[in-house]
Amino acid sequence: MEDAEIHFISNFFRRNTRSIDNKEYIITYSQLKTILSGFGYGMDNPDSNFINITRDVEVTRGLFQRRKEIEHQRITQISFPGWKNEVSAGTIRKIRVATHLTAKEGIDSKVFFRNATPLQALISRYKSPLESLANR
């Protein structure tokens, strides 16, 4: 009986998942800005052929009058020849590692470049049925 359940579950995952994509896709800096904004990052302060990769973070300021402000936190800095130029594969790797948007963290190339659904979404979608099977 258990072998049939395991076979059913493994077959289900085989049909509803895909292989991890580690390809490097060619994109422009303009496309990179759009991709990063979808993950909560930005590209700010272009200066002298460099640009910052940033993330907005909430900080509390003031000793007596405490107030919360949004601040651009610099994650890394990359070369920046212009919005229409192509981003090198090495630069994309640097950004993905610095922002934790790698396959190791669940964001493979299909999710990063092509807006595919991450595996975590599938797991969270079927969390309760999987838990009930685990607790049998």
Explain the overall architecture.
The protein has about 140 residues and is α+β, with helices and mostly antiparallel strands. The protein is about 40% helix and about 25% strand. The protein is built from six helices and three strands, in the order H-H-E-E-E-H-H-H-H. The protein has helices at about 1-15, 30-40, 90-100, 110-115, 120-125, 125-135; strands spanning about 40-45, 50-60, 65-80. A three-stranded antiparallel β-sheet has the order 1-2-3. A hairpin with a 2-residue loop joins strand 1 and strand 2 (about 50-60). It is flat and about 60 Å long.
End-to-end separation = 12 Å
Approximate strand percentage: 15-25%
The largest sheet is: 3 strands, antiparallel
Q: What integer value in Å does the Rg equal?
A: 20 Å
Q: What class would the helix/strand composition place it in?
A: alpha+beta
In short:
The chain has helices at residues 2-16, 29-38, 89-98, 109-114, 119-125, 127-134, and strands at residues 41-47, 50-61, 67-79. The protein has 136 residues and is α+β, with helices and mostly antiparallel strands.
Please give a handful of descriptors for the protein shown.
three-stranded antiparallel β-sheet, 3 strands, alpha+beta, 41% helix, 6 helices, flat, 136 residues
